[in-house]
Input
Amino acid sequence: MMTQHRRPAPPPPCARAACAVVAVVAALSLAGCAAPRFAAVTLPESLAVPPDETRALVLLASGVQLYECRAAPGAPASAEWVHRGPEATLSDDADRVVGQHGPGMTWQAPDGSRIVGTVNHKVDAPVEGAMPWLVMEARAAGKPAGRFGHVRHVQRVATKGGAMPPAERCTPAEAGHVERVPFEAQFWFYEKRWNW
Output
């Protein structure tokens, strides 16, 4: 007499739904382990801003630093790199483009607010080939309100790339040549702290 083997019954709908929920939770947990968009930074004390200011905004700049090879002043037989400034987009922690970073150490938002930075202090970056970290005083050069309208100081930290090209690549024969050096940097924007 042959023995009949029965197929196991499929799990009830509620069990299948529970498994799906577990899979989604696991996927979200793995996503949560991804590297944060803004890396943690230990800020040197020399780049501190006044104590009556608070950090209001952090943005990531991504683009290029422009360096032009020019004849050295008073020495036409030699040449040197001259920094022309950045061409970069500014994005927030959700990877949305929210502004532009341009030559003259400027930051501009689509709302018309714009600031210009003056370097107060700098320190060498801890990563080779990266631009220095800076603290800059900011002055308004656009609309008095908006994203950058109340910014007083800006820090440039967590820099990657963007350093000046090697001197030997700038010769009198190369005068006028412009190098576009890729870079990234975090910019921290500070406003006055109000005690209501």
